Structure formats: structure tokens, C-alpha cells
Target: MSEP-CTERM sorting domain-containing protein
Amino acid sequence: MHSLRNPKWLFLTNTFPTAVLLLLCSGEFAVVHTLLPASSVALWQAYGLALLAMGVVAACYAGTQLARQRPLGGWFSVAVLVGYSLWLCLLTVESNKLLPPGAVPRWMLPTEPLLMAWTFLMPTLAYAMLALVAKFTPDDQPHSAAPNILLAVVTPFGWWLVFWVVSWISDHTRGASAEPYTPGRWDEVVGTLVVFGAVISTLSFFFFLVRALFIITQHRNGFWAETSLVWKVIITLVLPLVGLGVNNGLLFGQGFHHSDSGVFGNFTSPWFYALAALNALLLCLPDSPRPGVRLVQLLGRSALFGYTFYFFLVFLPFLPLAIPAIILIGTGFLLLAPLMLFVVHVRQLHEDVTALQLVFSRAVVRAALLGGLAVLPLAVTGSFWHRRQVLHEALAYVYTPDFSKTEHIDPSALAATLGVVRQNKDRGIDFLFGSQQPYLSTYFNWLVLDNLMLSEEKLSELDRIFVGTSSGYRWAPGWSTDAPRPAPTAPQLRTATATSTYDARQQAWVSWVNLEIANPFPTIQNGEYRTAIALPIGCWVSDYYLTIGNRQERGILAEKRAATWVYAQILNENRSRDPGLLVYRRANEISVQVYPVSGSEVRRTRIQLLHKEPCTLTVDGRVLTLGDATAAPPVAAPVAVPGSGVTYVSALAKQRLPLVRRRPYYHFLLDASAGQASATYEVRVADVLARPLPNGAPARFSIVNAATTPVPAGADWAAQLSRMPLAGGFYLTGAIRRVLFDSQEHPAPTYPVLVAVTDNPDHAVLDSDFEEFSSAFPESDVFYVLGADGQLVPHSLRHDARMPLAAAPPAGGPAAVRAWPTAAHPRAYLPDTDTPSIVLSQRPAVPDPAAAPTNRWLTGLLLSGYHQWQTFHPEVTDQERVPFIQASFRAGILTPFTSFLALENDAQKAALYRKQAETLAANASLDTLEKDAPPPAQTPVDGGAALLLAAGVLLAGWYLRRARPAVG
Model:
């Protein structure tokens, strides 16, 4: 095993992990350092410099030895083991000084720095240990395994003896004095000795254990050779299978598959057991004397090495707990199983390579070895990539579809993918890794979910659309989108005022809305104020302030998902932090949130609005007048952004457009989902058609399940429906959007009256509103549901689409609209109302994020027009979303993709920018939070810091022990 001491391995096991650890920790330190006391900052710097110095020294030594073509020295391996072990132990002991409790919110640290240190530095310790064993166990010399086994077994008992002796001395020393006991120099000395002794004894234990395994695998005759198959079976088969069973609940009498979680992670998949058995078979088979067969054995053994290495990596940070676990828990020795399997597997691969290089060229042997090693990583990556493709195709179909195309999603592949997504969702209540798979879940979330998540609402919606079943997610009662009604004890608006100034340069009004918020009772603490404000058409939010302490904090215009995530995390702290959030809830409606409002304090927030004409604004029942009609000329003509195709048509200009009446027609959306016993709607449809619409056009039909299939005009819709298999869910949202898209893209003298035909209206997948599509239904927002009773039940497309309307005008009643720009060549139809409209004559270009806005109101009009176009063409979202958001940043104007967020301190702002970089790089349909639910406390990726802290306590010994009363 002389090759283990090649200095090149030190770059892989030490230099690279150390560099990554320093980079990750420096990133987290850059976010939280402003919250830390000076002593903690000094500790971060000291530990960082110490680690950097050790890494540089190790890299220089490795480079020197590589240039001299010499192996790593034994003393260097000892120095690495002792130095890095002491660094880790001291870091663990002083972890509370690095991050004082309560100083830094947990959500600002995606991964516990202490856990990262143990994870990234354990490969260094493991390699130094293997190199040291290789140094003192050359293959060409005889060695005895028995003394090493004895020393390894004795070490845990030595721990117990040392602690007992130190405890006895400490108690007698304290008992000799009549004075009350106070910690002194003796305790510091004892603590230092215990830490040092624990490090040395732990390293000794692993040295003797690994060396014993090396020696055993060297023997070609004698006792170990005769029993080689027995101990190989124990190490490669029995211990891994028992470990899997114990982790999955076998120890507690619950069977191998009692749940989808385990102590160290979710290893309940049959693949883990199958790979364990196959790996054991390949390692236990005798080496073939035939070179070709031996080469195949090398290929198979190297292919399964990924399995061995994975569990070795998973349990590597927990190896220091092996000794106390053996003492305290009878099954603690199972923590050593991955290490022993790793040593045996590495030894076997080394022997295969050495033997085959005598027959085949080095290139052939290396190709077989490297090709085998790549099998499992490539298989896992390929599986995850397939999951990504399936999931992202489904997300695109539902949330960013191309309405002009019909996509087909494999429901079985999607159902399996959604199951894996749920399994990999972080559940804060699980012990250690719970339902996740260490490292694999992190890799899955990075590759498949872009480091974000899918809310349970979306997971359930995808299930209902493509599979026709629900995950049990409870939808909000009534799917209401009305303005939130605060509880009587919630903070309330005390005063609301507005000031307006006409800006002649941009020919628009600049208004400030000033809100004062207070509690109805002074005993209320940490209350949150929420309200919704409907914005007039042509009104943009252009600035935001929140008073924090004695200063006015300007809101940061940030990506919406990142801002809402940061705001939710601060609320979850339940502490006196001061965020304020301004975000679009729906089309032309913003949500204002301020936290906290405590006691008798008064919180003040200001919102700047740009609007073309004077208007009124309603805030919690208070009506504010913005602008003065006498101070500026009326907008009598349409206002267009040059070259964009976006035009603002004021109410006055709209009244000058020709008034026309279009012919209505029924468009039946026929439910062909799996929930239908049979799709026989002829009688019901015939009854509706027997009551023709006034001046109505011929009816049209679309068959709806997960997909929407239009029936050609004049075709037999009933016959086509009978041939359609009943599958998936009734995706009514998608069907309605496609019909509205067609109406918007092809303005015609006719318009659809939508009728959803189904036996189970409650099973329909239906959005709460279609307000963003309102330009496609200027005559009326009413659609109908034709249920099993044959009654046409009216619903609204603008709000609470699931709730029946108490009253509605007759279907197809006379509703005149305005044709724009002319009745002879209309490009759009506008509602005949006294409110402005925004119309599009062509596809607007993506706003240039680098261009400085010369007229902010016109820039807001361009942004609004582009978003309106994008609503009907969501297929461009992923490609054009980032430039659109950057243009919003540049103009300083709120859009549905951005939010204004006012924050209290620099650490929160740094965390926001870090999260924003993540969300901007991710798929637009992914989430950062569960909808309408408080976020759980953030848990670190591949958690387990609590157990590592326990290790620190054990290693520190009496240094962390609470003082006992003096013995009288």
C-alpha cells in the first residue's frame, strides 16, 4: 500500500476540502459578522488563520515531496492528525463563543459552521491515518494483527479509567477545602489534559484498528487466511445489513420499513440492501486466476466502491463518537462498520490493480478502475437529471406554459418524481437526517430544485392535475383572495394621509401615502400589520420607507421570492426585528406588511406612487385622494411608449373609441378526468343549447383532463369525448387560460361564454382568480359550471372563482365594448368603463436593464405592458425573467416579480442578497416557502450539529463539566 503515501493525495484530501471550507465559512462570516461581538470576530479570524496556515504548510510539504519524488513522512502524518484533531476539538469546545447563543438567527447560517468543519476536515484525518498505517505496515514485512486488535479493544476501557481517575482526583481535591468551590487553574489543566488525552487515545484507537485490518488482509496463510471468508462476510455483509436495519428501526422492533426516515437518514430503499448484498458478494468472491475474469472483478468491485465510499463519507464526521458510543450503547460499534468496509474495499482494489498490471497495460487497468468508479456517481446523476427534466416539464406545463402548444407529461414518472421531492424536503422535526439521505438529498435539491423547494400546495396541485389524486394538502377555505381581515387584537391603521406633486417633466403625479400603525391595546407585543391596497390602472409603486427606531429605512427592491423568504424568517424569530414588506398579491393589488408593532409604539411607513391622472386610493376603509384634477391638464389622448406597442388609454380617451357589440358563443369545457364515472353530458349540454344566447354564434367544445383538447368546429364532440380515456385531473385553470389566450391573441367579433361541464365541481383544479387575464374578457367576468343537476351556476373570473355568485346577469346579455384603435381593424376590445386601460399592439421588447429611465412613469408603463404580455406568453418567463427583474431594479419600480423590503441591519441585507442570487439562478416556478404557513425553523443542510456538539462535550471532559458542591 505504498501508493497511499503519494503526496498527490494530500491535495485531494486536504488542500481542496480546506479551501472549500474556508470559502464557505468566509461567505457565512461575511453575512453575520456585523451581529457578532468583537471577541467572536477575533475567534473567527484566529481559527480561520490557523486553518489557512495548516493548509498552506500541508500543501507546500506535499508539493516539496512530490518534486523530490518522496512519500509522505510518518512524522508529518502524526502532526496532521494531532494538529487538525486539536483544532476541531477546540473549535467544538468554543463553538458557543464563535456564535454566541441568540446573537445570530439560525436562518442566516444555511449550514452549521461546526458541522462543515467536521465534515470537510475528516477526509484529511482519514487520509493521514491511512498514510501513517501504510508507513508502519509495509507489505514486504511480516506483522502480527493480535497486538493491534488488543490495543484497539482496550482503548475504550482506557477512556473510562481515565475519566474515573480524573473524577476521583478532582473530587478529593475539592473536598480538602472548606471554602465553596470555584473553578480554578486545576480545572483548566484537567480540561486541557482530558482534551489532549481524548484526541491521542481516539487517534490511537483508529490507528490500531485500521492497522489490524491492513495486517489481516495481507495474510496469505495461517489463521487469518483460513478464516478470511468468515470475517469478510461479517465486515462486508453482516455489519452493513445490521446497520441498515438498526438505522431503519429494527432495533426498536418496527421492522425494516416502518417509516421513511431513520436515525442517520432515510436508507429504507431496497436498493441500499441490494447494493450491500452485491458489494459483499463481489468482495467475498475469491480472486480469479484468469486475467480476463479478474479484470471483470476489478470493474465490478470498483463500480460498487461508490456505495462503500458513500457510507464511509456519511459516518466519517461521527467516527469520534465511536468510542463513547461503544461504551454507552451496545450497538455503537456499528459506527465503525463503514470504516472497516472502506479499508477492506480499498485493500481489495489495490490488490486487483497490482495483479492486473502484471498482465495488462497500465492504461487498460486504470481505464477499468476509473470507469468502474464512475458508474454509481453517473447513475445517481443520471437519475436525478431525469427527475429534473420530468419535474421541470410539469412545472413549465402548469406555471409557464406555451398556450399555443399541447404538451404531454408522463403521469407515472411525475408521480415517482414528486415522491422523491417530498422525501427530500427538509423536515425540521426529524432527528439528525430524518427522511433525507445525507449528501444525496443535498445533491438532489441542488440539481433538481436549484437549492429551492416546492411548496406542498404546488406538489398537491401537480398530483391533482396529472394523477387525479390529492396529497391531503388542505386548501384555503373558499380560496378567498379578498383583502386580509385583521383580528380585533391585531395592529391597526391609526392614520392615513397623502401628499401629491405634479411632475411636469414626466407629466405624471408623484404621491406619498403615509401610514401610521398602532396596537388597539398596549399589552400586545410583536404584532404584525397586514393590509391590501388596490392600485388604479396606470399607478406604479416607486419607493418605500419604514421608520425603524429614529431613522427612516428605505426599502430594498429585491426579487420577490427572496424578499418574502427573508421577511418570513425574521417573523419566525419572534423577536424585535423590524422588517417591512411591500409586494403584489395579485393584479393591481399590493400587500403591505409591517413587523413588529409592540405595546404603545407607533410604526410609520411611506409608499411613493407614480400615476398619470388624479385618482383615489382606499386603505383599510380610508379613502385618499391622489392628485388634483385642476392642477394638470386632462389626459385626452392615448399615451404610448415609443416603439414598444404599449399604450395607456385614459378613461377620457376610451370614451372616444367606437362602441361595438360582439356575438357571444358557448364554449363547453368537458371534464374527462379520472374522477368521472362516465362522461355522458349530451342531455345537459342539449338543455343549455336549447336556451340560445342572444345573437349567439355556434358553440365550441374542449375536452379537459390534464390536457385541453379542442374539438374541431363541426365535429361530433360526444363521439370524440367517448373515445377519450378518463385520466388525470380536471385541470380547469389550464383550459380557461387557453381559451382566454386565444381570445386575446385573435380579437374577433365573437367572444366565449365559458361553461365547465363536470359531475364533481369540487374536484376541479381551479385558480382563485384570473384577474391578470382580464383584458381577454372585457364584456363579462362570469363563467358557469354545469353540474350533475343540470343547473348553470355562475362564478366570477375576477375573484373567488370557486365560490358561486349570488346573482349574475343573463349569459350573453347585451354588453358593449370599445374597439381599439378602430372598429374596422380592432387590435383589442376594452371594457366600456370609466377607468383607464393598457393595451398592446405588438410584443413589447424586454426592458433594457442597463438603460437609465428618462421618464419613470413611462418606464413603469413599459414594465406593466410587458408583464401583461408575459401573462399570455409565460413560456418566455425563464429566459426573460432576470432581465425584466433587473429593469425593475434599475427603474426602482415594483413589479409582480419584485418586492420592496425594509430591513433593520446589514446582516439581514447581506442574507437577502445571498438568497436573491440563489432565486435569480433558479427555475421561476420553484418556491422558497410554504404558502400561507409560518416557515419552520431553518435547519442546516445535512444536519447533525447537536450530535457533534455532544462529541465536543465528551472530548472536552471536565472542562465543560458543571461545578459540584464541595464535599464537607
Confidence is low (pLDDT under 50) at residues 474-483, 934-968. Residues 662-803 form a domain with the Rossmann fold fold (CATH 3.40.50.410).
